[in-house]
């Protein structure tokens, strides 16, 4: 059957050297949408890449680092980061380009809005690139250019 890669996923700030040592790859979740300071979507994307770079150089021990989750909500409130459909699209586009340029595989969070999350905030329910009825919230073709 061959080797089956083993790994775990954790927020970048909580991923430890011991976790990296026990894994075949390092997978981290990074949400700059929750940062306490916001200046632009560009700086939020830069924060994701810088944080991944920090894990790569300080924790990963030469193992592949993959961004397991990152995304931007289209509505609600998380503090200083303005949540809107325009910023969700901008973040998705810029993250794709920046992650590719930096050599990171990533998973965008998330496919569709999660209205089923009872008791969750509006922002927590609105990360999808599709609405809850599976209609794209923006032209997905826009994600193909850098």
Automatic annotation (TrEMBL):
GO biological process: one example? cell wall organization
Q: Which InterPro entries match?
A: Beta-glucan_modifiers, GH, Glyco_hydro_17
Q: Where is the signal peptide?
A: none
The reaction(s) catalysed by this protein are:
Hydrolysis of (1->3)-beta-D-glucosidic linkages in (1->3)-beta-D-glucans
Where does this polypeptide localize? Cell membrane; Secreted, Cell wall
Gene Ontology molecular function: any one: glucan endo-1,3-beta-D-glucosidase activity
Query: Might you give the EC number(s) for this enzyme?
Result: 3.2.1.39
CC terms in the record's Gene Ontology section: plasma membrane
Q: How does it sit in the membrane?
A: Single-pass type II membrane protein
Q: What is its main location?
A: membrane
Keywords from UniProt, A to Z, are: Carbohydrate metabolism, Cell membrane, Cell wall, Cell wall biogenesis/degradation, Glycoprotein, Hydrolase, Membrane, Polysaccharide degradation, Secreted, Signal
Say yes or no: keyword Cytoplasm present: no
Family classification: Belongs to the glycosyl hydrolase 17 family.
What role does this protein play? Glucanases play a role in cell expansion during growth, in cell-cell fusion during mating, and in spore release during sporulation. This enzyme may be involved in beta-glucan degradation. Active on laminarin and lichenan.
What name appears for this protein in its UniProt entry?
glucan endo-1,3-beta-D-glucosidase
Its source organism is Coemansia guatemalensis
